[in-house]
Amino acid sequence: MLAMNTDQVGPELSEFVELAELAARASAKIILPYFQSSLDVQRKADGSPVTIADKKAEECILELIRTHRPQDGWLGEEFGSADGTSGYRWIIDPLDSTISFIHGVPLFGTLLAVQKDGQTLLGLINMPALEEMIIGVRGSGTFYNGQQCRVSQTANISQATILTSSCTNLLKHDRQAGFTKLTAQAAESRTWGDCYGYLLVATGRAEIMIDPVVAPWDVAPMLPIITEAGGRITDLDGCEDFPPRHVLATNGLLHEQALAAFAS
Asked: At which of 131, 148, 165 does a domain end?
């Protein structure tokens, strides 16, 4: 199933949508055989885990970009960056939530984004183990497994579901107090986080997603995915500059209330 019909986007971006889907599905075929298997887990300089699946998936994606769009630049989590001549840049996270992956939990995904002149035009999340894919294209909408999707219309924080990736990171980055204040008002809080948390907000299954620390490849795809679904995404101080150090993604209706919790 296609995550998005390219007839729904302009000719400039249809090529990117097709290539992003191709890369996501090709990398999924590499990742899934390693899932719930015995893996050698290494640690990068920042202490985060990395596996052969992360590296091989990014190699696969880069090979497809070099083949189909050799003039484009790219920035990847595992293999650095390269300048291009076209003005377009791909941002790649081959395996977001490697921690989930190595623990045999299916809430991991591949993230792709396309930028031009500092604007993110396309964002994709593919969840290989769940067979869920979502694509947001600037000016065209957000599409989940082929159908256009929207954020929820929940306007009361007492009815909201709030997500985050890591309670540990909330503590490390001094965001626990704001998170506690916010969740005390909410209906539910869960750690269905990382890329899946943003997917849940964009499809109306949760209202707020909080990440106390992010890298560019963690958040670039989320910009069009969330906004084209009708939501709002900033950092925890309300700033919209890219790349942020931390992220708040909401259905829009609850954004100011969430910002207020962290401001205090």
From this structure: 148
What radius of gyration do the chain's Cα atoms show? Answer: 17
Q: Are residues 177 and 80 in the same domain?
A: no
End-to-end CA distance of the chain: 45
Question: Could you tell me if 78 and 133 lie in one domain?
Answer: yes
The secondary structure of residue 132, as a DSSP letter, is E
Pair 202, 136: CB distance under 8 Å: yes
Q: Tens digit of pLDDT per residue, the chain (264 long)?
A: 556 666 677 777 999 999 999 999 999 999 999 999 988 888 888 878 899 999 999 999 999 999 999 999 999 999 999 999 999 999 999 999 999 999 999 999 999 999 998 899 999 999 999 999 999 999 999 999 999 999 999 999 999 999 999 999 999 998 999 999 999 999 999 999 999 999 999 999 999 999 999 999 999 999 999 999 999 999 999 999 999 999 999 999 999 999 999 996
Q: Strand pairing partners for 247?
A: 211
Query: Is the pTM value of this prediction over 0.85?
Result: yes
At 30 the three-state DSSP class reads helix
Note down the domain range covering 117.
6-148
Check which CATH number belongs to the domain holding 173 and give it. 3.40.190.80
Q: What is the C-alpha to C-alpha distance for residues 107 and 234, in angstroms, rounded to an integer?
A: 23
Do 63 and 27 have their domain in common? yes
Residues 6+ apart with CB under 8 A from 31: 53, 57, 94, 95, 101, 110, 128
Same domain, 130 and 175: no
Residue 143 within a domain: yes
Instruction: Mark whether 116 and 200 lie in a shared domain.
Output: no
